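Hi R.,

Here's the chain you asked about this morning:
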Amino acid sequence: MINLDELLVQARRIAEHRRADAEKDIRKTYKQISKELQHFLSDTYVRLSKDGKLTWDVMQQNNEYARFLEEITQLVDVATPQTQKVVEQLVDDMYKASYQAMMDGVKKASGMPNALNSEFANAKIQPQQIKAAVDNPVSGLTLSDTLEKHRKDIIFEIKRQIGVGLQNGDSYPTMAKRIARSLDGDYRKAVRIVRTEAHRVQEKGNLDAASDVDSALQREQSGMRMAKTWRTRKDERVRPQHRVKTAHGWKTKISGKANHVKMENVTVLQDELFDLGDGVKASAPGQSGSAANDINCRCYLSYALMTDAEFFKKTGRHFTVTSAGKDDIIEPYNGKRLLVNIQLFAEKDIRRQSSASLQRAVRSYQKQIEAHKDKLAHPEQYIDGWEERDPRYKAGLKRHWQKEIRNFQQSIEDRVQELKQRGDYDG
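And here is the predicted structure, written out as tokens:
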């Protein structure tokens, strides 16, 4: 077994430093905005307040209310482009670094087949890959959508707090505290976006690179596969645990449906999904499309190249699978054939999912189909040196993409059928 985890440790540390630096930059932005808002608010109170208080009636009498809100909105809006720039640069860098780290780890690993070492020597990440990873999160919202929603939320909240303050006739210190609390809450949400998105693309970068390696291992009939293992931080914050502050200090409580404690050390093949329970599946941490599982998740995957015997020793099953219609025949270690109706289990999982989750999955699979069709139409845009590649390599890769499209189409059909049965399908 070739364990790649040790080779990826340094890359993860660098990624954590990058994320921490991004959070510092965003904090500086919010501190500056808070300072400017306090100055503007102070000036407004000096000009218009009576007995140290400012009311909605006073603002209207002086025709200041509309201008006041407009100024507040413009000051807050400064945070959006600055935060977006920091987040977009971070996720772009994180994806490229994590993808390259995986490829470098494979190149450095001892015991790799010579044919694969030469194939990965010139491996190059394509711009289309980065764009797909950054712009098409599994949640169904693009990064730009998420940041725009965040912008609208904070403007609405600050306006609401100002409205309440004017209605109550707040003094300057009270109004200032209201706005400061809103900004602090907004900063925390911005940091949550940074952490969630950075984690998502970091795992996605590793995953995409590992998928490329696994496809090559199968094309070359190397007798090895890429296996991935779910890892947690093994502390009191791993879901469903969480830390809460009580009158008697910090305590660990259990709540929520997401359970990552049980996922520790679960191993599957690279092209398989992890079952997170409650009908939720994911190719990697941060990739499920379920907020309860993805937001602020700190789990990660470790990777290893395994032979069939090594995979069986780790999981109790072989990775040699042949199709048998709706049934899959798995060859166990003792040589006897075990017939497992995998379709049955898949349909049960679908029935447990909410209609909204099924609809998101359909949209996600449709995007994947379009992306794979584009790969088939323009492989040279995705694979460096495509024209010079061995014809067997090109044919094998195209067969893989076509198989993926068929799998995605079947997944869509299964979910559409379930939605129709519920009466929730709108075409």
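One quick note: Confidence is low (pLDDT under 50) at residues 321-348.

Cheers,
M.
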